[in-house]
Amino acid sequence: MKKVLIRADSSSSIGHGHIMRCLVLAKQYLNKGYDVSFATLNLKGNLNEKILKNSYDVHILKSNDNEELIKKIKELKIDLLIIDSYDIKYKSQKSIKLKTDVEILCLDDTYEKHYCDILLNHNIGANKKKYKSLVPSFCEIRCGVKYTLLRDEFYKYKNMNLKQKNKTKVFLAIGGTDHSNINIKILKVLSKFKNIEVNLVTTSANSNLDILKQYCKEKDFINLYIDTNNIAKLMKESSFAIVSASVILNEVYFMQLLFIAIKTASNQKNIYKYLKKKKYLVMKKFNKKRLKKLIKKINKRLEK
After folding, report:
1. Transmembrane region positions (predicted)?
2. pTM to 2 decimals?
3. Which terminal residue of the chain, N or C, has fewer Cβ atoms less than 10 Å from its own Cβ?
4. 68 CB-near residues (< 8 Å, 6+ apart)
5. Is position 18 annotated as part of the catalytic site?
């Protein structure tokens, strides 16, 4: 049996996107008969328990030191290393390859240089041509929506009609940890609109969760979901979405849900540029007046 090791991290500051998409990738390899495990740091607000609940072994690393990872690859006799980390760059990848001869698959969002056998950018608008000089000639490049990593729930709910008549329901998700701390600001803008209901999705790793809970308390128009497993269902029930220009946008796009995307981190720059070029409703950063204007635009589309 071939062995796969996934090297990725999650935390209150990093977010949960890397691990969530790697869990989808892990299942794909598991279904092919591979033995899959994770190597991760034990950071504050991590998803290591979630990985364990999905029945994968978790190997806790003490640091990002390359030699520690190389030792683990040799110890476990790994055949394929999947890297989803901004901290493990080209030189480290090449060193791992030369010292272990392991096959390497790198996930990338930002068109960085990689030394790998397979390069995966599953974001909408991913451009294969941009990687021509960034990866070795032997590298297989997998780009675009064809390779989008989606949990089974999205295929289950995609063609269902769960929307309520005579009510505008908004799906709101600004990352599992909302490191930009804009959920409440968005909710305040939404509160100005009539006949609106909000499905707000976040996680227990959100460092602003207590403040958010307090704000949502006794506000009938807000449904607060923490660590929910029903994201696809909540999307399908909604009229439109307000999300960060991150991994979750791939899910919204797949569900064919109208959306407003807000760039909340530097690694979302390429997705933001693509959306702007294609004339989607997008914001370079949160702005109260701009968001209000975009919500009005979406409401007009919904009325047609």
Report:
1. 240-262
2. 0.88
3. C
4. 61, 62
5. yes
> Two tokens at 275?
């959306």
Query: What is the per-residue pLDDT across 10-36, written as a single tens digit (0 to 9) for each?
Result: 998 888 889 999 999 999 999 999 999
pLDDT of residue 282: 97
Q: How far apart are the first and last CA of the chain?
A: 55
Is 112 within any annotated ligand binding site?
A: no
β-sheet bridge partners, residue 201: 225
Residue 195 tokens, joined: 């006949």
d(CA 150, CA 25): 9
Angle in degrees, 0-180, between the axes of helices 66-76 and 90-100, rounded to the nearest 10: 30
For residues 175 and 159, give the distance between their C-alpha atoms in angstroms, rounded to a whole number.
25
Whether the CB-CB separation of 243 and 271 falls below 8 Å is answered with: no
The whole-number pLDDT of residue 89 equals 96
> Which one is predicted more confidently, 246 or 39?
39
Considering only the C-alpha atoms of the chain, give the largest distance between any 2 of them, rounded to a whole number of Å: 62
pLDDT digits (tens, 9 = 90+) for 115-149: 999 999 999 989 999 999 999 999 999 999 999 99
Of 16, 18, 114, 122, the catalytic one is: 18
On whether 251 is known to bind a ligand per the annotation, the reply is: yes
Which helix (H) or strand (E) segment holds residue 262: the answer is strand 258-262
State how far the Cα of 211 lies from the Cα of 81, in Å rounded to an integer.
40
Among residues 171, 259, 297, the alpha carbon closest in space to that of 222 is found at 171
Question: 136 and 118 in contact (C-beta within 8 Å)?
Answer: no
Please compute, for residue 222, the number of CA atoms within 13 A of its CA located in the half-sphere on the CB side: 25
List of residues 6+ apart from 284 with CB closer than 8 A: 263, 272
Residues 246 and 124: beta-carbon distance below 8 Å: no
pLDDT at 96 over 80: yes
